[in-house]
Design brief:
Elements: H1 8-20, H2 28-42, H3 56-68, H4 71-79
Helix pairs in contact: 1-4, 2-3
Length: 80
Amino acid sequence: MPRLMLTDELWSKLKAILLEDRVYNKLEHRQTLEGILYRLRVGCPWRDLPECFGLWNTIYRRFLLWSRKGILMRLFKTLA
């Protein structure tokens, strides 16, 4: 399993942003964001994401949706 990037403290801040943008509070959103960060860090194709992050196509769809809504930019600014 790949090393995770988000601490519980950092996740609580990011989760608040997702809730502000009316993204439902689902447990897999943390896993999804970890998968997005992993892919950006490693540069692998979406289909090659490790299964521990969930289904690659779910992660990809959320990446597109969150990008279009500006949610990812807000999350990344919080991470910076």
